[in-house]
Write a structure and sequence with these properties.
Radius of gyration: 18 Å
CATH architecture: 2-Layer Sandwich
Strand order of the largest sheet: 1-5-4-3-2
Structural class: alpha+beta
Number of helices: 5
Number of domains: 1
Number of strands: 5
Length: 170
């Protein structure tokens, strides 16, 4: 059932912010600390305000976004796209996700998780593509304004797959 898994994580954000802060501390002009703080605050507010909007997917899933920790997985199934889509929509609440937008024609599902002690919440993006009777599922879990997901992204994927596999048992 499973074909391949690929993961991507971000760590460059920590280095960039550390360098900005270190440079500002070493400079004699302490007001220059305000510029990086202002920019980081704007990026954080943008993320918070757009988090529940499906149109912000390119921002949260971009490989160039250093302010979002994300993980991607790809699975291939022998199910038709429409059946897999219906099953995924059915199991999302059991996996702990709130569906924000689901488009069966496009094969896209956008869901979110709630705020926890370790995360501002995660955005879950699922895309389905059908080719020759096989459906490829692309799963992306992205943590808002975090350099590490503290295992939340991996946990989201594991919960998702566990619920999916449980739903197939008769």
């Amino acid at each position: 059932m499973k074909e391949s898994i690929s993961k991507s994580k971000n760590g460059a954000g920590i280095i960039i912010i550390s360098l900005l802060a270190f440079g500002a501390i070493l400079s004699k002009n302490k007001e220059c600390l305000l510029i990086p703080a202002f920019i980081i605050t704007l990026i954080f507010l943008f993320g918070i305000l757009t988090r529940r909007s499906s149109w912000s997917k390119p921002y949260f899933t971009s490989k160039y976004n250093i302010f979002v920790a994300k993980i991607r997985h790809r699975e291939e199934f022998d199910f038709p796209k429409h059946l897999l889509f219906e099953k995924l929509v059915e199991i999302m609440p059991e996996a702990g996700f709130k569906i924000r937008k689901a488009n069966e024609d496009m094969g896209d599902i956008f869901a979110t998780t709630s705020l926890t002690w370790f995360s501002w919440g995660e955005n879950i993006y699922i895309s389905l593509q059908e080719v020759n009777g096989k459906t490829t599922l692309d799963f992306c879990s992205a943590c808002l304004f975090q350099f590490s997901s503290w295992g939340k992204n991996e946990s989201n994927y594991d919960n998702f797959m566990d619920e999916f596999e449980k739903s197939l048992i008769i």
